[in-house]
TrEMBL record:
Keywords: Isomerase. GO terms for molecular function: carbohydrate binding; glucose-6-phosphate 1-epimerase activity. One of its GO terms (cellular component) is cytoplasm. Belongs to the glucose-6-phosphate 1-epimerase family. The keyword GTP-binding does not apply. InterPro entries: Aldose_1/G6P_1-epimerase, G6P_1-epimerase, Gal_mutarotase_sf_dom, GH-type_carb-bd. This is glucose-6-phosphate 1-epimerase. It comes from Saitoella complicata (strain BCRC 22490 / CBS 7301 / JCM 7358 / NBRC 10748 / NRRL Y-17804). It catalyses: alpha-D-glucose 6-phosphate = beta-D-glucose 6-phosphate.
Amino acid sequence: MGNYSPKTSSSPNERYVLGQTLELTLRLAPTATELQENEFVNPSTWLYIKLLEWELRHRHLPTATCIRGRALSVQQSIAQAMPFKQNNDDSVTLTHPSGSSAKVLLYGATVISWEVEGKERLFLSSKAKLDGTKAVRGGIPLVFPVFGKATEGPAAALPQHGFARTSTWELLGIKNDNDDVVAVQFGLEVENIDLEAQKQWPYKFGLIYTVELGKDTLKNTMEIRNDADAEDFDFQILFHSYLAVGDVSDVEVKGLEKVDYRDKTQGGKVLTQAAESEARLDITSETDRLYVAPSGTSTTVLEKDQAVVEVQRQNLKDVVVWNPWEKAPQNMGDFGPEDGWKRMICVEAGSVAEWHKLKKGDSWTGSQVLKALL
Ligand SMILES: O=P(O)(O)OC[C@H]1O[C@@H](O)[C@H](O)[C@@H](O)[C@@H]1O
């Protein structure tokens, strides 16, 4: 059995080979990694097979035998039904059967768009650099292994928010274990980061980032491995989500009541969010707060009293709320349009108030789920 090209013409013989290859692949290699290791499957064929497999499963074709008879027509329809597409600009687009979509740049593995019911749910600055020269201003940049700028300790040499958002990630492929979502995985390890970052943070790590698109949800999961046989390391992690809003003056954030926070606009002063009666956090000026370990795992953004989006946390302790207001964006150089600050609020799920120690050989996983409510 040799390689085949999914673009070959439709002679009966090729039809048979296509069916046979699929049957063998589905049986022998149910996961992406196994497929890549399987010698007769080259990467483009592998991607094609995964897409085809997805298509077939969504059409509820029960067995590989069905595939033989249907493979060709599925092949023809796949261009329209494709759940996952690699674009020429080093990005991938995920499309859910419901019509929702997401776009992820390999640079920073930054999600730069999430659309539900035809409406964009993430803010992306009109001046954001998308060419790999600067962390993306908008979408969901990934903050790792340090949040902000460490003044001491092993991460002190790293730039603000670490290197994950400014490194080019590898596309690992589709993760295919849930019929309701389209999921794509990206990887970053020591070899993928530049030499300077390797010197600044000399640890043997591996990150697997999964982006799962549902009908009205976007789930971001980070698995962090310590691959070293000698050294433990400390990390912080955060999904720096820029949520799109109509006007931030109409926005309130719910779910942080009575929680202590460090107010970065007041030099890190520790304050406590008001209790239930004055429950919500209104955004009326520059806001940069680290809410430390709220007991609830859900934070909701409301606009004019209507819940717009919910941010759920799984194994992520803290929440950062950030809006730079009018002045600060003027010095950023990549924040646009001029009143762009009104159109966004960052509600960032992470573990950043403390350091998380990862022992050699161990791994850690945390997720956020963004749920569109309106
Ligand atoms: O400009 P950067 O590096 O992307 O950071 C943006 C903001 O990110 C937030 O998470 C921080 O709390 C802010 O202090 C910071 O200004």
